[in-house]
Amino acid sequence: MTGKLLSSLILAGATGSALAAGFSLEDGGGFLLTAAIFGLLSGHLTTAHLALLERTGRKSKTKKGKGLALGNVILGYAFLFGWLATAAMSLFQDEPPTVTITSPSEKVRKPSYHELMIKLDVTDDNGVENAKLVVSKDGKEANLPMDVDSAAKKKIAQLSCVLPLSKMKLEIGDVVTYYVVVDDGVQEAKSEQFQVEIVDESDVAMDDVPDSESRQIASGGERAKLGDVGTGESGDVRKGGSNENDQNALHEDQLINDQLAGAAQGEGDITNVASKPLEEQDESGQALIGDNLDEDSGAPVFQREGSGEENIDLASEGFVLTPRRDKFSIDQSLFEAEEVQELDRPEARDTEIKRTLAKLNTMGVSVPKSMSGRCDKIGRRSRLAEGGGGVGVETAVLKGLDWLKATQNEDGSWGKKHIGAMTGLALLCFLGHCELTDSSEYGDAVSRGAKWLVEKGDKQNGWLYHNNHRHGAAYAHGIATYGLAEAFSMTEKEWMLPVLTKSVAHIVNGQKSDGGWFYLENVRKANGKTELDFKRNDAEGSDTSVSGWQFQALKAAYNSGAEFPGVKESLTESIKNFYRVYSPTNGGFGYRKRSDAKNAKHKLTGVGALGLQGWKFGHDGQDRNLVVNKACQHILKSSRFRYDSKESNLYSWYYDTQALFNKGGSYWAKWNEQMQPQLIRAQNPDGSFKEEGSGTTKSRASEDAKVYRTTLCLLMLEVYYRYVY
Question: Which of 424, 513, 544, 676 measures 20 to 30 Å from 212, CA to CA?
Fold first, then answer.
């Protein structure tokens, strides 16, 4: 009897443990197991109880319970065997897989030449065998097989694939839908659908920067509030807090004066970030909090950590934030200088002169809004920061202007041989930084340079070249006219206008029937005298390089607001010539015909792109945006900014830099990250620029190479604010 009692108690304990396990089961076999356990537990406990009664001599009481115990045990084993059968069947039952796209998990916007990385999680009881990306556009589907080796025999796995947008011949405005299908050899599963909208690159350039209007985050120390940096929720746009010059103190390389932006160790009282880079700060600078700049808030309040629910360190990631701006790209309507209305500012200029949206400069002259960014000191710094330019850019520009001032000839010109062109380029550099005739530092140099051009033009009936070499003279006249036109536009000195009118007329009258210009040639005039003039032989195509300077000169004359007969019509005709040499095959612009775009010697794509960007008329039947997009892509593929390389070409880069900056977005970001540091490193201690690797400027400008090289480099460094506001 002792053995029977012990065995029953052991079986009862095991059955009790199984009972606990049975309650925890959620599948279909859980009920059977639980019922079996109840039966077996009841039967074995009853048997143990009966065994105990027999030991104590009360056998008469055990007879009634034996039948009940035996019945419970039999019923329990019946349920147990049922559960075992169910469990065995489940071993052979296949569960369907699941698939979830984890990135991107919402609709995205991409340019057509990008690729989209898609990540997903898959689950299956035995692992998936196949997967495919299903892509559709306009109702047409395509299946792209996916590699599933990494998910084989895994119950949980992560997969990824690439949606090759660049191979789908997409256009701006197209919407591509995609989803993923996986199967385990028996059953399949489908993910949620997502979409990609095809947009222009500039439309997504700043998509990674959160919207300042939708987030409520105050700043503190190096923590930057989204949008109005360093000012909490006040809306004050002074991004550097309340320091003396309202400087943007996000980064060390964006500061003009360290002392005004914060103490050396980041303990400035009234700036959002001090002068040292974030990783070197011992303690973060302080920031204005919340709405304390409101009229009734009293004295400003500062704190070191933001008071919002979340503080995001955007500055350390390289973001430059400005209020009310969601992307970095040029406003084409401003760059094109479209006539808007008559200017109602008689104190600035005659009210009958039509201008673009205008702003007054230091001389009380209204200049086109597209040019006024250079004349707003704070705005110039802001534009510099927005475009990715550091404090080193301004330092380099000022050093270069100092060198030009120091090397100016006694008669006011620059250079030794190609004097007309060099003087025009030097003037453009000073004007690009809004150094006018009233400038305390450079005013005398600007005034004397402009007077030299006027005197030269007065002696030569409006021609501004210095020597009569027919090739160089064509370039020199266009460049010098460009410089003089900008000088007049920004100063309105009436003594410039008579010569400028004649200089512009030579360009208008010298335009060929294809819309472009070519070299000068000796032409016999009505008075019997022979003089150089533009060659107009229509049997030959125009020269894109020469045409680029004439276009810029006419554009500057148009921007002045003065009446120059035929300028608008000539600019419109010039667009025809740029399209004439454009190659849709590779996106390049040729020297005299479109097939020249294949010739690496003539890198003139920037000339054509800048021309198309700069004038809105004359594009009949052409998709200007598409052409400019392809041109900018061509520039980035065919031209690398390597100052010391044998392929360096400062002349081409002068145009490429402007075209890519105007395009904005990643086009400019890729170019700027190469251009800016290399130009700054290439500057000599005296402010001039060293010879580039190819030596092209020396071969083209001989003894004027240093002036030529320095002016091209300075104009590239001024691109951040010359024509954008």
Answer: 676
Domain that holds residue 447: 417-568
Q: Extract the runs of DSSP E, i.e. beta strands, from 146-277.
A: 156-163, 175-183, 188-190, 194-198
Q: Distances in Å between the alpha carbon of 405 and those of 360, 390, 543, 611, 722?
A: 26, 24, 33, 31, 20
User: Percent of the chain, pLDDT > 70?
Assistant: 62
**Cα 312 to chain center, whole Å?**
20
Structure tokens at 623: 């998709």
Residue 105 and residue 78 share a domain: no
Task: Tell me, yes or no, whether 437 and 559 share the same domain.
Answer: yes
Q: Clarify whether residues 316 and 264 are in a common domain.
A: yes
- Which structure tokens are listed for 525? 């005039």
- With contact defined as beta carbons under 8 Å apart, do 650 and 697 qualify? yes
Torsion of CA 350, 355, 359, 361, to 10 degrees: -60
Position 639: which residue type? S
Whole-prediction pTM value?
0.56
Instruction: Give the three-class secondary structure for 48.
Output: helix
Number of Cβ atoms within 10 Å of the Cβ of 427: 27
Task: Provide the 3-class DSSP secondary structure of residue 188.
Answer: strand
Structural tokens at position 410:
């006694």
Lowest pLDDT segment from 120-129, 341-350, 572-581: 341-350
- Residue where a domain stops, chosen among 299, 327, 355: 327
How many domains does the structure of the chain reveal? 4
Whether 457 and 499 have beta carbons less than 8 Å apart is answered as yes
Instruction: Kindly report, residue by residue over 45-81, the tens digit of the pLDDT.
Output: 566 655 665 666 555 555 555 665 566 566 666 656 6
Strands, DSSP E only, in 175-242? Answer: 175-183, 188-190, 194-198
Least confident span in 362-366, 494-498, 529-533: 362-366
